[in-house]
Amino acid sequence: MLYLTENRKYENLVDPSTFIPRFSNKLLKGAHNKQVVETATHIIASMKSNWMQIGRKPSGICGAALYTAALSHGGSDPPSFQRAEKERMEEKASTEENDKQQNSDESSTLSDLDDGELDCYFRNPKEVHLVEIIFDHENPGYDEKEAAALNACNNASNLFEASKAAAAKSRKDKRQQRAEEEKNAPPPATAMEAVDSMVKRKKFPDTNCDYLEELLDTSAQKASKRLKTETVMEKNKEEHEIVENEQDEEDYAA
């Protein structure tokens, strides 16, 4: 088959379906060969209709279709895979059986001994005492060091618990003292005192107290300053109006 491209060059088209019978005859030897070929052909036709074969090699499309078709017809476990899987399972079972047998032999070693033989493997009280003497001679002061380490650990733990309890008691006393002070404190005389008390109680670190004080300041000095500012603004406004009237009269006379 030939087709005409935009640059007017002819190229041979290769249909992946032509590879299906040859590949299936070499790869598949079962009774489902015909069914696999038909399914693979339908898959390739579906890929063509959905434009899924554009840009892909024909051999790759053929391999994907055959693989999918073989899986759909029960080809996931071929005979070679089944034989290898069977050998692997037999080897695993044999290894587990050998390990179990070895563990059983080791566990039954002591059960085969009589009481006389068992006494040879264990120390009597005299031997135990001799071992203790030898250990004390080779490790002088071992008991004292162990006791000192244990005491140091206990002292550190007790100190930590005591400091923790003292810190908790200190926080509790501070809370009680603060609550008592707030309870006995007189009511705020001004709005600024109320705001300042609330800021200190809630612990707002980013509050601009100076701005709040200026905003809530209702003293006589601020009132007189505001009155003076308003008077100056009114005076400037009157002067500006007089100048504008004079300019209008000059323009009218001219």
UniProtKB/TrEMBL annotation:
Compartment list: Nucleus
TM region(s), chain numbering: none
InterPro entries: BRF1_TBP-bd_dom, TFIIB, TFIIB_cyclin
Keywords (A to Z) from UniProt: Metal-binding, Nucleus, Transcription, Transcription regulation, Zinc, Zinc-finger
Ranges of Basic and acidic residues composition bias in the record: 83-103, 227-243
Species of the source: Arabidopsis thaliana x Arabidopsis arenosa
Transcription factor TFIIB cyclin-like domain ranges (all copies): 12-73
GO molecular function, one term: RNA polymerase III general transcription initiation factor activity
Domain Brf1 TBP-binding: 111-216
Keyword Metal-binding: yes
UniProt signal peptide: none
Superkingdom of the source species: Eukaryota
GO annotations of cellular component type: nucleus; transcription factor TFIIIB complex; transcription preinitiation complex
Single GO BP term: transcription preinitiation complex assembly
Listed name of the protein: Brf1 TBP-binding domain
Disordered: region residues: 72-116, 164-193, 220-254
Family, as annotated: Belongs to the TFIIB family.
Acidic residues bias (residue ranges): 244-254
